[in-house]
Amino acid sequence: MNAVQNPPSAPIKAGWIVLAVAWLCMLVPIPGLGLFLGWPLNLVAFIIGIVVIVKGSTGQGIAQIAASIIVTPAVYFVSLAIFASMVGGAAAEGARVAEEKKLEATAQAMAAPAIPVTSREYFAIYQENEVSADAQFKGKHVEITGSVAGINKDVMGNVYVELVTGNEFMPVHASGVSQEVAAGLSKGDQITLNCVGAGMIVGFARLEECRIP
Fold it and tell me: What sign has the CA pseudo-torsion 135, 108, 104, 127?
């Protein structure tokens, strides 16, 4: 009779301790800790809650079960929000640093004397030897002259100008030209652009940070 009347203090304490550890695992910003340790511990706490009820402390057992069913998912979603915020903040900071480095590299490149080249020559040099062409042009100040083959936008909405080469299907891509300048261009126009060499992607010789000198 006394065993029924006295609350099972050990299982009750164990249940709450296990729940607290489960929630802590979920809130600690370590990928996978909440999923692979927090949730199994929550299941253990749920089972302990059932044991507590069986041992005669119905109120405490129900409270632990309710906490494992209601509170734990809320804690888990809060932890996901915290983790997403941290990842987003780190990504934004990384993007900011990368942009600063790119701007610095561009400024340094544009401060150097320009390498004059026509769009036909630029394309031909890349077709001949991409490695050698990168050593000559990539990341460097290039003054390129050629006829406009097209004025387009990429999937991100960024403007680029296509310059005529010896291959009508593979023009040079010159990005960074302002909307205002691009709007005033027509196919066949002869233009000169100051750019930074950007190598070659899938056969297209590229330049970036282009502007009218």
Answer: negative
End-to-end CA distance of the chain: 96
CA 160 – CA 173 distance, rounded (Å): 6
Per residue in 137-147, pLDDT tens? 999 999 999 99
Q: Let me know: does 162 contact 148? Beta carbons within 8 Å.
A: yes
Rounded to 5°, the CA angle 173-179-181 comes to 80
Report whether 212 contacts 200 (CB < 8 A): no
Residue 209: its H or E element: strand 204-211
Amino acid at 137: F
Q: How many helices (H) and strands (E) does the chain have?
A: 9, 6
In the block, tokens 């006394």 appear at 2
Phi/psi of residue 86, each to 5°? Answer: -65, -45
Structure confidence by residue, pLDDT tens digits, 93-142: 888 887 788 778 788 888 899 999 999 999 999 999 999 999 999 999 99
